[in-house]
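Quick question, first post here. What does this chain look like in 3D?
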Amino acid sequence: MRAYDGGEFLGLRQLRAGTRTVEDQEAFRISPLHRYVRHPWYFLSLVIVWTRDMNAAMLLSAIVITAYFVVGSRLEERKLIAYHGERYRRYMEKVAGLVPLPWKVLSPEEARELLAET
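> Answer (accepted):
Ran it through. Tokens below.
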């Protein structure tokens, strides 16, 4: 959670500052979890959703929540590409989206190199 600006996420920082733009207020960051998956909160939420006891209602809810995260992550990535450009595209090539994949992991050195880019 330390890798996120909670005030920016909730809109509190923009409210206090009187910011009325939609541009990303945060710099490009890569937390330790972001080296393994681009959307760690979505992934961890999916783990919770899919590891619960299932009945028909829970299954339907899990499917809808999963679809929401898939669509939401795609929309969020469009926004992040617009904000961070080619650097984010390179990050996307190297790190899995919603589910960690062993062959798509960013080393600490690669993370530092991406963060050092302008």
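The mean pLDDT is 85.
DSSP finds six helices and no strands in the chain.
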